[in-house]
Amino acid sequence: MVPGRNGSTDDPDAGTVLAALNDERCRRLIASLDRPLTATELADRCGIPQSTVYRKLELLAEAGLVAGRVHFGRGSPHIRRYSLDFETVTVSLRRDRTLTVAVEKPSTGPDEQLQALWTAVREQR
Q1: CB atoms near residue 30 (< 10 Å)
Q2: In angstroms, rounded to a whole number, what is the distance separating the alpha carbons of residues 28 and 13?
Q3: Sign of dihedral through CA atoms 78, 82, 83, 89?
Q4: Positive/negative CA dihedral, 62, 42, 87, 109
Q5: What is the pLDDT of residues 86-106, one digit of tens each?
Q6: Strands 66-73 and 88-93, how do they pair?
Q7: What is the CATH number of domain 9-123?
Q8: In the chain, what are the domain boundaries?
């Protein structure tokens, strides 16, 4: 999943976002993402089994909170690194007493936009 980090506000399903934020392991992953990290690095940092890290990253990505991007290196395998993909999460109560959740995405520069586009193209292959 590669959301378009362009300063926009996406409105994911409130239940998905709230479930991710309610999950203690998801919160540990969020707290550890001070820079882009691989799933292996996150597992080591958080003391969480790697298989669980992948499941939690999938939940966080569905909630629009984390993005995985493939990084390409010369003579090395492509590495997927995960980073936070939000600046703020706002929970609001509507007049009809239902909750809405807005996830505000960070603004990015052209280099990051190109990287995100290239990652999306590679994933479609």
Answers
A1: 17
A2: 21
A3: positive
A4: negative
A5: 999 999 999 999 989 999 888
A6: unpaired
A7: 1.10.10.10
A8: 9-123
